[in-house]
Amino acid sequence: MASPSPEQRAADRGTGTAGSGGDAAGARRTGAATHENGDGTGTPRPTGGVLAHRVPDLGALELLLAVARRGSLGAAARDLGITQPAASSRIRSMERQLGLTLLDRSPRGSRLTDAGALVTDWARRVVEAAEAFDAGAQALRDRRDSRLRVAASMTIAEYLLPGWLIALRARRPDTAVSLHAGNSTAVAERLLTGAADLGFVEGLTVPAGLDSAVIGHDRLIVVTAPGHPWSLRRRPLRAAELAATPLILREKGSGTRQVLDAALGGLARPLLELSSTTAVKASAVSGAGPAVLSELAVGEELSLRRLVTVPVEGVDLRRALRAVWPSGHRPAGPARDLLALTRCGTPG
């Protein structure tokens, strides 16, 4: 058998007919996708880009259907809310795109050509399919918008979210909202497993696999019951003294515990380790010992003198409050609205 000519070899390289993987490479160069057959061979097929170049847009197809229905380009333009010159220009553009004459124009109106009648039939099917597609997408949006699953760390869940959810209810009265309160680690787990749509955390860092937005800031404060020796101090606590003292603390994994541990460089063994802000606060009020809590959580107790603040020097106990969601899935629908509301009513 004769060897291929240089021209033939060049042609083979250009079309992907020679060498392993040539079909896929040739398909990419010519704007075609490769469909894997059951026998392992690849069959090129047009990509969406090629199809979009050859097929008129939905607006043009709807205009053609309106002309067929009304028998007049002017009447069709009025139905669609555009000017007659714009409608005429769109029809001519579609004719150039298809390489076909679709309408015979005369003073008495516009009549479909034979080719135009066929294209109109095809256009009707395309538009009906698009309407079905739109209806299906709307049904999915309605299902998404009918519920919102929120996960939040304790301080945010107890002291900030109630107000946000009341405001969301005014905007979306038909959305059913469920709230799971837990520590920051539990919030991340629910988001990553698909059990929540939007989360709120108070920790130092954003858990892996999540995107975030800072929605405000909070400050941790040291509090005791009025009879505790620290309540009588004239000078602030030093950071080292606070770190060495057994405290009433939240459990490991909570945002409060993470921030405090990082700020002090380590903590003494807890006096008590409790799983909710309310339990920590109640223990401090009872006189069990000093606690570190969010400023948001103890406003009432401080105003009634059931707790007192103990100043601390040499340590920054401010922390960011964050909304979090799975990476690459920006909040939509009710989750997007709730996120917007948090930015309107969160401590700075």
Could you explain how this protein is built, in words?
- The protein is of the alpha/beta class.
- The chain folds into two domains: 53-141, Orthogonal Bundle (Arc Repressor Mutant, subunit A), CATH 1.10.10; 149-348, D-Maltodextrin-Binding Protein, domain 2 (3-Layer(aba) Sandwich), CATH 3.40.190.290.
- The chain is built from 15 helices and 15 strands.
- The chain has helices at 6-15, 22-30, 48-54, 58-70, 73-80, 84-98, 114-145, 154-159, 161-171, 184-192, 239-244, 255-264, 277-285, 299-303, 334-344, and strands at residues 32-36, 42-46, 103-106, 109-112, 147-153, 176-182, 198-201, 210-224, 237-238, 248-250, 272-274, 291-294, 308-310, 312-313, 318-326.
- The strands form five sheets. Strands 5, 6, 7, 8, 12, 13 and 15 form a seven-stranded mixed sheet that branches. It has a two-stranded antiparallel sheet with strand order 1-2. Strands 3-4 form a two-stranded antiparallel ribbon.
- A hairpin with a 2-residue loop joins strand 3 (103-106) and strand 4.
- It is rod-shaped and about 100 Å long.
- The chain starts with 5 loop residues before the first helix and ends with a helix.
- The relative contact order is 0.11.
- Residues 56-113 form the HTH lysR-type domain.
Quick tags:
Arc Repressor Mutant, subunit A; disordered N terminus; two-stranded antiparallel sheet; 46% helix; alpha/beta; 348 residues; D-Maltodextrin-Binding Protein, domain 2; rod-shaped; 15 strands
Terminal Cα separation, in Å?
A: 82 Å
Low-confidence stretches: 1-48
Output the helix-strand order.
Answer: HHEEHHHHEEHEHHEHEEEHEHEHEHEEEH
Kindly name the structural category: alpha/beta
What is Rg?
33 Å
- CATH first level of the largest domain: which class? Alpha Beta
The share of residues in extended strands comes to 15-25%
Domain count:
2
Give the helix proportion (percent range): 40-55%
**CATH topology-level name of the largest domain:** D-Maltodextrin-Binding Protein, domain 2
**Count of beta strands:** 15
Mean pLDDT: 83
Treating each run of at least 4 consecutive H or I residues as one helix, how many helices? 15
Looking at the structure, what is the overall shape?
Answer: rod-shaped
